[in-house]
């Protein structure tokens, strides 16, 4: 409904409701049939990642004027590109070269010098790592459950790697080591309950903590709220599925203008873990449930006759 600029033979991109399989997803800039599988992985994962950074956390590229802090609208652009995508240490760059978020009514700019991304080898996680690299965040810390997954994250732009299984979930010390004891300015978490305490300890002063999943449970038996108060942490939560149509239209329009061209020219990469036919859907779900995937799992459907 309310589709615009769609004509016969024009490729389109669709994000299905909860519980549906996306089986026919085509993008305006992905005109080769060989790229349809990559296109199928874009709507849910990449739109979610883009939304978390720019519409929920409110990241603005370093080049954005200060007046943007006083705007109530989501950022219309995320076009900042990194002139250097190396593994600079936390704090080496001047803060005015970093993306930023705006703090409260005062509009104070808070530089994002470091980010911790949990489940960084997932479909959303691999998109987040690349988008943070694109924004030139100096320190990108990837957290995952195996060294193989972490090596993938490194190829995508992560500067520091944490195997949370190897440290038995106590990752905050490694985060502090990577940030010279400061903690991260931005934390992106789909895990939830089991990581709450360590997440709070990993945050820097005035950090933004975005909670967008509950893979580790929804109930927290014990959590010290004083850490949130003492560090002035912004705890944010969101899900794309419950947003209204106007929000989704704004998100898709911004994403199409700024990110789709970079996916089309391979500046950004859609990471496909595995491809299953529709009759193998059970196997695909089992792979996801066992947390074996690195990137997106895609199902293919036969063309209707």
UniProtKB/TrEMBL annotation:
<dbReference type="InterPro" id="IPR013149">
    <property type="entry name" value="ADH-like_C"/>
</dbReference>
<dbReference type="GO" id="GO:0003960">
    <property type="term" value="F:quinone reductase (NADPH) activity"/>
</dbReference>
<dbReference type="GO" id="GO:0070402">
    <property type="term" value="F:NADPH binding"/>
</dbReference>
<keyword id="KW-0560">Oxidoreductase</keyword>
<dbReference type="InterPro" id="IPR036291">
    <property type="entry name" value="NAD(P)-bd_dom_sf"/>
</dbReference>
<protein>
    <submittedName>
        <fullName>Putative quinone oxidoreductase</fullName>
        <ecNumber>1.6.5.5</ecNumber>
    </submittedName>
</protein>
<dbReference type="GO" id="GO:0048038">
    <property type="term" value="F:quinone binding"/>
</dbReference>
<dbReference type="Pfam" id="PF00107">
    <property type="entry name" value="ADH_zinc_N"/>
</dbReference>
<dbReference type="InterPro" id="IPR020843">
    <property type="entry name" value="ER"/>
</dbReference>
<feature type="domain" description="Enoyl reductase (ER)">
    <location>
        <begin position="2"/>
        <end position="299"/>
    </location>
</feature>
<keyword id="KW-0521">NADP</keyword>
């Amino acid at each position: 409904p309310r589709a615009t600029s769609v004509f016969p033979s024009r490729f389109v991109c669709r994000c299905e409701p909860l519980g549906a399989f996306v089986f026919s997803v085509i993008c305006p800039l992905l005109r080769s049939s060989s790229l349809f599988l990559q296109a199928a992985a874009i709507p849910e994962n990449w739109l979610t990642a883009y939304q978390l950074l720019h519409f929920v956390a409110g990241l603005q590229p370093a080049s954005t004027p200060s007046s943007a802090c006083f705007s109530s609208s989501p950022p219309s652009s995320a076009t900042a590109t990194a002139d250097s995508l190396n593994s600079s240490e936390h704090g080496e760059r001047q803060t005015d070269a970093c993306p930023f978020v705006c703090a409260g009514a005062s509009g104070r700019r808070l530089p994002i010098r470091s980010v911790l991304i949990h489940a960084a080898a997932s479909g959303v996680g691999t998109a987040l790592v690349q988008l943070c690299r694109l924004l030139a965040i100096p320190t990108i810390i990837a957290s995952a459950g195996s060294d193989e997954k972490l090596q993938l994250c490194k190829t995508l732009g992560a500067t520091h790697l944490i195997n949370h299984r190897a440290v038995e979930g106590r990752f905050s010390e490694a985060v502090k080591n990577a940030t010279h004891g400061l903690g991260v300015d931005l934390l992106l978490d789909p895990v939830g309950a089991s990581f709450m305490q360590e997440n709070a300890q990993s945050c820097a002063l005035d950090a933004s903590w975005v909670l967008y999943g509950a893979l580790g449970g929804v109930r927290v038996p014990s959590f010290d709220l004083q850490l949130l108060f003492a560090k002035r942490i912004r705890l944010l939560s969101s899900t794309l599925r419950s947003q209204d149509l106007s929000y989704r239209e704004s998100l898709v329009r911004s994403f199409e203008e700024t990110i789709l061209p970079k996916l089309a020219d391979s500046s950004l990469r859609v990471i496909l873990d595995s491809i299953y036919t529709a009759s193998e859907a059970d196997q695909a779900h089992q792979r996801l449930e066992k947390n074996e995937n690195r990137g997106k799992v895609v199902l293919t459907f036969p063309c209707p006759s």
